[in-house]
Amino acid sequence: xxxxAARTHDTVTFHAVELLKEASALTRSGIDIISLGxxxxxxxxxxxxxxxxxxxxxxxxxxxxxxxGLPELREAIANFYTNQLGARVDPARVIVTSGASGALxxxxxxxxxxxxxxxxxxxxxxxxxxxxxxxxxxxxxxxxSADTRFQLSAADIASHWGPQTRGVLIASPSNPTGxxxxxxELNRIFKEVRARHGFVMMDEIYLSLSYDGAxxxxxxLDDDIIILNSFSKYFNMTGxxxxxxxxxxxxxxxxxKMAASLAICAPTLAQYGALECFHPESxxxxxxxxxxxxxxxxxxxxxxxxxxITVPVMPDGAFYVYADISAHASDSSAFSAxxxxxxxxxxxxxxxxxxxxxxxxxRFAYTTSLERLQEAIHRIKGFLS
Length: 385
Prior knowledge:
Elements: H1 7-10, H2 15-28, E1 34-35, H3 47-58, H4 71-84, E2 94-97, H5 99-111, E3 117-122, H6 127-134, E4 138-143, H7 154-160, E5 165-171, H8 183-195, E6 199-203, E7 226-230, E8 243-246, H9 249-262, H10 268-274, H11 280-306, E9 320-324, H12 332-343, E10 345-346, E11 348-349, E12 361-365, H13 370-384
Parallel strand pairs: 1-10, 3-4, 3-5, 5-6, 6-7
Antiparallel strand pairs: 2-8, 7-8, 9-12, 11-12
Family: Belongs to the class-I pyridoxal-phosphate-dependent aminotransferase family.
Pfam families: Aminotran_1_2
Protein name: Aminotransferase
């Protein structure tokens, strides 16, 4: 038998995907499952985006694009930051990637040497650890609490930075918690990392799905960080596999060189479609959908609380509720399985996001209609009683 590389054993299992597979199998067997599991919007691409891709396909624009992306798309993304996210960005610093996953891979390959350590909060998005591992690095998970909104603080970084630490990977708003880091704390974090000559990878995938005030990119505070973003969440284009990164000027050439070999380019037709994301008509649709997500959050949080499933911190972004189920169970994985088969509701156990709170937490994604959320709460209530 062929001997596998060690990294195949070290790769962290993405339990949300395993849950999706099990829920999908039940659905195919004729059982109605309400999925609050995988973080995929129930909305799909805006009409102009679909038309843009179709027009490009009919015009034969399906060849390779430049490794860093279509120039006009890079410019559109830069303008989006200037007009919507409060940070002026040179289009030359934008690199279009095959999803945010492609951006994470390129950032890890560019910044991490074998043996380097990267600090991340516990809880965090599980595949992030795998990208660090793919580059030969290791992850140090730092337990967080509701007191810091389940986010890293500058004090955490100062106390946990070690001889092998190379940088930090943080997300605001976060998956799985839906919480953001305050501007003041971000500033302190950046100063701590700069003082140690490290890097900051900043996941802003959910930034445009912020509900408390106008979203503002961390680039407005520090221009020397690596921004990771995606068309999947706010723009509702998960399967289009399109994302981007914004990097300091000195990183553009080496990352573009790697992108040319590792991916050649992001999907070209998807890029032509994505140009229409920034049309005023499309942006109006996305803002309407953002408000729909807010309404779902405002229903789901108190509804869960009424069932004894507590929410330690109100999410201010993304589309997740990170909840404490300890009033009902001491093993969230077993409770997740029981909900799936007993209530026909899929929600992700805390184990997916790190060990610190794994036993007593779950993530509920409000990525389905308000009516389906209401039915999910009805089913959970019946199951618990």
